[in-house]
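User: What would this chain look like folded?
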Amino acid sequence: MSLHECVSYFEANGNQAILGVCKSLVSDTTLDAVERELLSDALPAPSSIVDEVRGLVQAGGDPLGEAFMRVNRPEERRALGSVFTPADIVESMIGWAGERVTPARVVDCGCGSGRFALSAARRFPDAHIVATDISPLATITCKANAMASGVSISVVRGDFAKTNLPFGGEGPTLWIGNPPYVRHHDLTKEQKSRYLSDLHSLGVRGNALAGLHSHFVASIARRFGVGDVGCLVMSAEWMDVGYGAAIRDILTKRLAMSYLRVFDKSSEPFVGVMTSAVVVGFDNLPCDRHVSIGDTEIALDEFKDSDRWSDVVSRRSCGVTGEGYVRLGDIARVHRGVVTGRNSFWVRRPGEVSEQLSVPIVAHARELAGDKPACRDVSGLSRLVTLPDDISTLPEELYVEAEGIIKDGLRAGVDEGFVASHRKHWWSIKAPKAPAIMMTYMARHPPTFVVNVDGLGMLNVVHGIYPTVSLSDNAIRNLAEYLNHNVAVGDGRVYAGGLVKFEPREVEHIVVPSPEVLEG
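Assistant: Here's the prediction, encoded as C-alpha cells.
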C-alpha cells in the first residue's frame, strides 16, 4: 500500500473511511458514548490502510488529519473552526516553549487530530499531555493517533471553557495550540455569557462580538498558574479590532507577552484558508519585558499603549512619516456610508420614486470598479428614498406618494427594524453628505479609490474620505491616484476566507503626500 493509494482511499470514501481507520486503532474503553455512536457507522478499513496509517504516524506524520483536510471543504471546516496547523509551525512553537519551561503537564487547546499533543508528548516524555476538543471526530482521531504512535495522551471531549481538565500534582502547565476560529455570529448566548464572566473575573472589559479564539484566551488566563507558559496560533485580526482589546489587555496586563510571530499577509500558512495569522507566546513572570519579533525586541509597554498592534510590529506608529508626507487622518476623516436598516425597501431603481423624494446613491461597491466606474453615469444609479420629517409640507402630489411609501413600510414592518426604530422619525433618512473620494473597503485585492466628481452619497457598502483641510480639485485627484497606486493588501486586515477589510481608522493611518505636495 503506497501513500498515494492511502490518500486516494480517503478521498473516495470521506469521513466514514477516516472513522473506520480510527476504529481499528483505538481501544473501545477510551471512548465515550457520543464517540461510540459516531463510530457505529464507520466504513470497515482494509488492514493495508490501517498499517500504512500506523506507519506514517509513527514516522511523525498525520495522515488522518491530512485526510480530514482533503475530504472536507474549507467552508465546512471554517464553520467548525477546524483549521489544522502545519507541522513546521507546530514544531517551532513546541521548540519555543521548550526553551522556557519543562512542563508537568501540557494542554493542547482545541486539539483537532492532536498535532500539538503528539509533538509535546515526544518533546516532554515525563509530562501529562491533555488534549481537548468539542468535536467527537477530532477526539476520536486524536486518540487513534496517540494509540498508533504509542504515546500516552488524555483526550477530553467538551467545551474548552467549561471542561474540567484532569490535572494532578505540582508543576507548571504549558498551554499550547490553535484555538478554533469561529465568528461570534455562530456562538450561543451561553458561550458569550461565559466569556464575559471570564473577563469579569480577570478584571478585563470586553464585548460579545469576540470570536471563539478570544474565549480560549480568556479561559486560559483564568486558569493560568505561577510558572505556566502559553503559546497560541490565532487569526491576527484581534491585534487591531475593537473586540481584540480584551485579548490585548490580557496579554499585556494580566499575563506577560514575550513572543510574537506575525505571518506575512500575502502568505497562506494554513492551506485553503486565506487569513492573516500570528503566534503569541506568554507567561506571568513579573519583570521588565520585551517582546521578541524575529530579530527585533520591542518593549511590552509599547503594546500596552497602543490599540493597533500591527503598527507597533511594523514600526509605523514609532517612526516619522518623512518630509512631504502625512497620515491621511491628518488631512481627512474616513466614514462609512449611510445605514438604512433595510436597503431592499429604501433603495429603489431609477423611475420607481420621484426625484424630489430621493437622491442618486452608490449602492454597490462594484459601482466604483473598472476603468469607467458606474457612479459616473448618475442616471443609471439606484436612488435612496429621503422623505422629510413632516411630509405635510410637501406639495399635494408628492405628499400622496410619500404617504404611500410610509404605509408600505408599515405593512412590511420596516418601522420595527432596529435602525428605523432608533431614528427620530422612522421614515426619514437624510441625504448623505457627499465625500471628496469614495473607496471600496472589502475585497480580495487592494481597495479602489474614486474621485466623487458628481457629489454622490453612498450606502455603507463603501467608505467616504472627507478632507478636513482645504484641498483643490487637482489635489483631490492626485490623492486618489496616489492611494490607488500605493495602498496594498497588507495595509488592511485579512479575515478567514481571504477577504481584506479596511476599517475607517485603518485608512486614516495610511501615509500620503502632504497637501503642499498634492497641490503640486
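Confidence is low (pLDDT under 50) at residues 316-320. If you want, I can go into more detail on any region.
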